[in-house]
Predict the structure of ORC1-type DNA replication protein.
Amino acid sequence: MDIISSELNAPSVFREKAVLSPDYLPKRLLHREDKIRELTTAFKEVINDPGNTSVRAVIWGRTGTGKTATVKLFGRSFKEVVNKKGIKVEYVHINCHRQRTLYLLTLEVANTLKLPIPVRGLSSQEVFKVIHDYLDRRNIYVIVALDEFDYFVNTSPQEDVYFLVRLYDELSAAVKRISYIFIARDLSYINSLDKSVKDHILRNIIEFKPYSSSELYDILRDRVTEAFQENAVMDETIRYIADVNGFDKGGSGNARLSIETLELAGEIADRERSPIVTVEHAKLANSKLNQEASIILDEIGDLELHNLLLIKAVMNLTKRYKDDEFPMGRVEEEYQQVCRDLGEEPRRHTQVYEYVRRLRLMGVLNTRQSGKGLRGRTTLISLAFPVTQDLEDYVNKQIRVRINTREE
Ligand SMILES: Nc1ncnc2c1ncn2[C@@H]1O[C@H](COP(=O)(O)OP(=O)(O)OP(=O)(O)O)[C@@H](O)[C@H]1O
Ligand SMILES: [Mg+2]
């Protein structure tokens, strides 16, 4: 009893920990002001000439660069400002990884607009028509943000991607009510689409660069004020985390990872009953978050070139699709592509399979048999660890070293 109550009453460096959770949307996003400005310029037409065009913007950049947060903040604020001008605008944020098909995605749009859709019998196209008629009747314009859009492009049938993107070629509507913001980690998937579709997407291209250490410092500082007790976090602590992660200092420029490190540092301080979060706490947090990766680095360091190329292939897929398991065939295709890019002759199937077995034994890859699908059983492959920028850089470096030092 005593233990429990003393633990519950223990002082904490945190004031409002929820502010550090990944879902928390801060009131302002430092160093993204110009991006909000660019988005506003792109969407000005919705106010100046409502219904005349369906505006399109693409946001792209690495993980943790604030794409989701910035677009959400823009959407909410834009809606508010424009509604005051007497134009009805709604904002819908769709995560394509969660809403995996055109149909689910369409239902989610309807859902957010609080528009009931008959449960069965309608195709996605028909649901879109229902949504559009509803918007017409109420004279509403909608900005639909399609987050993790690369995922949708990769996993959906081409005609679904085309329908969604070329909406107004397919849907006859006098007034164009739906505009899009596409969010992606990189543009290669969009670039691989047909020109006629691509042209509908690549209109206003906005790049999110990884954060520098001084930018991360400001972002962390801002979060600290809200999340922690006054003076609980030392300035050096913030500076340390910003330096480790700053893109200009060799880090990944990832704000999510930086905030996670800050939170873990706070938890460590609490555990030690320390009223302040020191650099030591931050170092511990940082190494904890990188620990898994460093164990893996040791193992990977000794591998032969084609094992590394195979790891790189699985890493590429994992990053691109934000999924974690891939059929053997898909992995092999990517492996062959990786080889081609580096001018390497790919190994044959049986040999690649042997690599997979070996990497599984080493604990680098996980494999399992899929259930019986259309094409029978297949081996599904996943990485046994999360892909970090450091890890990727390391693997690339090892590959380069092996190619350069090879005896011809
Ligand atoms: N400029 C900023 N100011 C304050 N917080 C930020 C800023 N940029 C990012 N963040 C925070 O960092 C975290 C990651 O941001 P976000 O989710 O928007 O990244 P993302 O680019 O969408 O990443 P992913 O590609 O992985 O989806 C969030 O918690 C977000 O609130
Ligand atoms: Mg995101």
The first strand starts at residue 56 and ends at 61. The CA atoms of residues 70 and 290 lie 27 Å apart. DSSP finds 18 helices and eight strands in the chain.
